[in-house]
Write a structure and sequence with these properties.
The protein is of the alpha+beta class and about 400 residues long. It folds into 2 domains: about 200 residues, no CATH class; about 180 residues, 2-Layer Sandwich (Alpha-Beta Plaits), CATH 3.30.70. It contains 14 helices and 8 strands. Strand 7 and strand 8 form a beta hairpin. Helix 1 runs antiparallel to helix 5, helix 6 packs across helix 8 and helix 7 runs antiparallel to helix 8. The N and C termini lie far apart (about 75 Å).
């Protein structure tokens, strides 16, 4: 649709400017208590309204000496007519006891667009509707969108009614002005809803990726069901805090959670550095793995290096913080199965004898030690300095040789 010619635009804008000026003058006659309230710009409502009057007089020269025509049963104050027809919410005071800052600015943008229907002003108007008017006036006030749409339709009908009352011809020219403004409102509304949907999707996507590996999160988001995967070789790591149960009872709830959060957040940062996968935390235990869900040839080395960094972090932290523990860490490399379980609360987990052995490596190790199995040792020995601990009997596993990872070569 082409916008009406310049004469129709000027005529329409001038009449709407007269109505708007009448409303702004009425605003200035409201109570001093109301007009003295401070706006978000740091000025009073009175100052804000006076500035808008000055802007309106500059925008449409000469209207300060003009008055809109009156008609029986139809107020020339469009804002009051609109408010009493559709803009008033239950419990909201009458027109005389309220101010209309947001709607005043909105109306001013309407006039600017009618006078100069450029892409630049159109963008500014859409931005104002989406960012300020819809969000602050509708969302923040918990106004139903259907009600908001009704308010917009009512204003456009009042404007068309006024054009017809004044005998504007051809009326199609002036109704097309209203159609253009309605189109902008609808576009702004859909932009807002689209952005809202995008933000909601981003939040849910972020939450899903905090729970599951990226590749599996993508499959679930695309309505695919990830199947369990067998890995011929992966490295599993368990960490445990020595003396946690004994000292936890001496801490307040906030101190306990704060300390655990500090340690687990440090573990998150370390395993991210090495491209490893966090699986879960249970109490004071932190579990992660390497070589899943994306396979790699150096997962054992990555896991042991990360374990050493976690051990060193906790060593150093215990020197500076009154609430701290030493780590006992177990590492084993072997075949596992990985997959997603649960329907309401998803969980990415692993199973297999390698998981059990890694857990036994941790529980059989010494405090402040990274205890690794012989299978892991054979893989990392060229890159990690290790000390042989010897053979220990492992529950349900029999006798197994263990090594203590000391430092990176």
């Amino acid at each position: 649709m082409n916008f009406p010619d310049i004469d129709a635009r000027k005529k329409a804008a001038r009449e709407l400017a007269r109505c708007h000026r009448l409303h702004l003058v009425c605003e200035l006659h409201k109570s001093e208590e109301l007009l003295s309230n401070i706006t978000s710009e740091g000025i009073t409502f009175k100052e804000h309204t006076e500035q808008m009057l000055q802007e309106l007089d500059r925008l449409v020269p000469g209207i300060e000496n003009e008055q809109p025509e009156d008609a029986e049963g139809f107020s020339p104050n469009l804002m009051q007519e609109w408010f009493e027809s559709a803009g008033r919410l239950p419990g909201v005071p009458p027109y005389e006891n309220g101010t209309f800052k947001a709607m005043n600015v909105f109306f001013m943008y309407r006039l600017k667009f009618i006078l100069n229907p450029s892409d630049e002003i159109r963008k500014v108007l859409i931005q104002y509707i989406t960012e300020y008017f819809i969000n602050r006036r509708v969302v923040d006030l918990d106004v139903n969108f259907r009600y908001f749409n009704k308010m917009e339709i009512t204003m456009n009908r009042l404007i068309e009614k006024r054009f017809r009352f004044l005998g504007f011809e051809p009326i199609d020219e002036y109704t097309s002005i209203i159609d253009q403004l309605s189109g902008i409102f609808q576009e702004a509304f859909f932009i807002y809803m689209y952005n809202l949907a995008q933000e909601a999707r981003a939040r849910s996507d972020k939450l899903l990726r905090n729970i599951l590996p990226d590749a599996l999160a993508d499959e679930l988001r695309d309505d695919k069901t990830p199947f369990p995967v067998h890995y011929d070789s992966a490295t599993v790591v368990f960490t445990d805090f020595v003396g946690f149960s004994r000292t936890a009872g001496n801490l307040s709830a906030s101190e306990l959670v704060e300390t655990l959060d500090r340690y687990f957040s440090a573990c998150d940062t370390i395993i991210d550095k090495y491209g490893l996968e966090k699986l879960k935390t249970i109490g004071d235990s932190y579990m992660f793995a390497g070589g899943i869900p994306e396979t790699c040839s150096d997962h054992a080395v990555r896991c042991v290096k990360a374990a050493l960094e976690i051990r060193d972090y906790m060593r150093n932290d215990s020197k500076d913080n009154p609430f701290s523990w030493n780590a006992r860490i177990g590492v084993h490399t072997g075949p596992i199965v990985a997959g997603i379980i649960g329907h309401k609360k998803f969980s990415y987990d692993i199973w297999g004898n390698a998981v059990n052995i890694a857990s036994r490596m941790e529980s059989s190790g010494d405090p402040d030690c990274v205890n690794i199995s012989e299978d892991t040792y054979k893989i990392v020995k060229d890159e990690i300095t290790c000390r042989e601990i010897g053979v220990r009997t492992i529950k349900n596993c029999g006798e197994m040789k263990m090594f203590s990872a000391e430092k990176i070569i």
